[in-house]
C-alpha cells in the first residue's frame, strides 16, 4: 500500500501476492545471497524500484484493501451459512 517493491522468500502464501519481477523479487527459501543481490538491484536502480512499487500499489488497491478483504470474508461466511 506504500508503493514500495518487496523482496521476500518464496514461502507460505508470499507468492500469492509477490510476483517476481513485477512488484518485487521472489527469492528461493533461505537463499540469503540472492536476497541480498535483489535488494542491491533495487537500491541501485531507482526507476525499477519506483515502477515495481507502483505495480504493487495497484495490486493492493485492486485486491487487498480493507473493504475488499471484508467483502471476501462476508462472501465466505454467507456461503457457509
Q: How does the helix and strand content classify structurally?
A: mainly alpha
Find the count of extended strands (DSSP E, 2+ residues). Answer: 2
Helical content class = 55-70%
Q: Percent of residues in beta strands?
A: 5-15%
* Broad shape: elongated
The biggest beta sheet reads:
2 strands, parallel
**Strands side by side in the biggest sheet:** 1-2
Q: What is the chain-wise order of helices and strands?
A: EEHHH
The low-confidence parts are none
> Count of helical segments?
3
Can you give a write-up of this model?
This protein has 81 residues and is mostly helical. Helices cover 57% and strands 10% of the residues. It is built from 3 helices and 2 strands; from the N terminus they run ββααα. A two-stranded parallel ribbon has the order 1-2. It starts with 5 loop residues before the first strand and ends with a helix. The model has no long low-confidence stretch (mean pLDDT 96).
Brief overview:
The chain has 81 residues and is mostly helical. The chain has helices at residues 32-44, 46-63, 66-80, and strands spanning 6-9, 24-27. It is built from 3 helices and 2 strands, in the order ββααα.
Keywords:
single chain, about 80 residues, mainly alpha, 3 helices, about 55% helix, elongated
Task: Please give the structural blueprint.
Layout: E1 6-9, E2 24-27, H1 32-44, H2 46-63, H3 66-80
Parallel strand pairs: 1-2
